[in-house]
Design brief:
The protein is mostly helical. 64% of the residues lie in helices and 7% in strands. The chain has helices at 4-11, 15-23, 46-57, 62-70, 75-101, and strands at residues 2-3, 31-32, 39-41. A three-stranded antiparallel beta sheet has the order 1-3-2, covered by helices on one side. The protein is elongated and about 60 Å long. The termini are far apart. The relative contact order is 0.11.
Length: 102
């Protein structure tokens, strides 16, 4: 088991972000000390955290990420979500390019 700070450093994020993920139910610690409330994480939780961060980088919101992490979504659903994110990013790029031209 890793202390929250060690796990955060290993994952390349802050302890504060891990606490946030715990609070909203995306990544609970493997163990919490009942006396101190100190959080402990297992190395086996790294793949879930990396997947979570990758989905964030792709532009998914935390509500969408919760669905994708907790339920094995059919490939068609994942493709639809990716297409939606892609369309949103294209719109944002077009808006930004128009703003730059002005």
């Amino acid at each position: 088991m890793l202390k929250i700070g060690d796990f955060a450093r290993l994952a390349g994020i802050s302890s504060r972000m891990l606490r946030h993920y715990d609070r909203i139910g995306l990544l609970a610690p493997a163990q919490v000390d009942p006396a101190t409330g100190y959080r402990w994480y297992g190395i086996e939780q790294l793949p879930r955290l990396r997947r979570l961060r990758t989905l964030q980088d792709l532009g998914f919101g935390l509500d969408e990420i919760a669905i994708l992490l907790d339920a094995p979504a059919p490939a068609d659903d994942v493709r639809a979500l990716l297409a939606q994110v892609q369309a949103t990013l294209r719109d944002r790029i077009a808006t930004d390019q128009a703003r730059l031209q002005r």
